[in-house]
Amino acid sequence: MKAFTSETSRFVAVPGVNCDTDQIIPGRFLKADRAQGYGQFLFHDIRRDESGELDPAFPLNKPGADSATILLVEDNFGCGSSREGAVYALVDHGIRALIAPSFGDIFYNNALKNGVVPVRLPLALCDALAEHLAEFPDAEVTVDLEKSEVILPANLGTHPVSIDPFAREGILRGLDEIEMTFTYAEQIQAFEQARIASHPWLGR
């Protein structure tokens, strides 16, 4: 996965409390070859009109929105099924961080495993951020994982970002859990050798 240290970007507010993983990527697209990119399916059914064309009113379809790498989403984002494809769709679209009052638990962990930083902020602050964006559509947010903080525009302040330390280390280094394990190869080998030396019957 791509390493994440700090990201400054325009952000897009995607509406919808309890936006589930089927809205993020409908299940019928999960059989598609990911080598072709899941980003094309992101919010497929809710960002298109009845004819299947992109709805110009949907936030991600507005001019300049494609350059945004941070999304402001609503409460309980990513609830529903455990499909990891929902995070794949965000990653393949270029999304690096999400800001919300809360996330579905499994989705939250899937995001961390794929290098997407989920930032939890109080509901009132998320609402204030959405109001600011409505007035200033070019406003930017910085998610700084090295400093464990998010810097909001105007007078909305700087706030801590708290994620699991192991996940944070992996994202900073661009390593998944298996790759992180390999970084301890020498220690693992030394432990195994010492274990066999002290318990030789284990090697029989």
From TrEMBL:
Function recorded in the entry: Catalyzes the isomerization between 2-isopropylmalate and 3-isopropylmalate, via the formation of 2-isopropylmaleate.
Bilayer-crossing regions: none
Gene behind the chain: leuD
Organism annotation: Tianweitania populi
Name the UniProt record assigns to this protein: 3-isopropylmalate dehydratase small subunit
Keyword Plastid: no
Keywords: Amino-acid biosynthesis, Branched-chain amino acid biosynthesis, Leucine biosynthesis, Lyase
Acetylation found in the keyword field: no
Coiled coil: none
Involved pathway(s): Amino-acid biosynthesis; L-leucine biosynthesis; L-leucine from 3-methyl-2-oxobutanoate: step 2/4
Top EC class for this record: lyase
EC number: 4.2.1.33
Assembly information from the UniProt record: Heterodimer of LeuC and LeuD.
Catalysis: reaction(s): (2R,3S)-3-isopropylmalate = (2S)-2-isopropylmalate
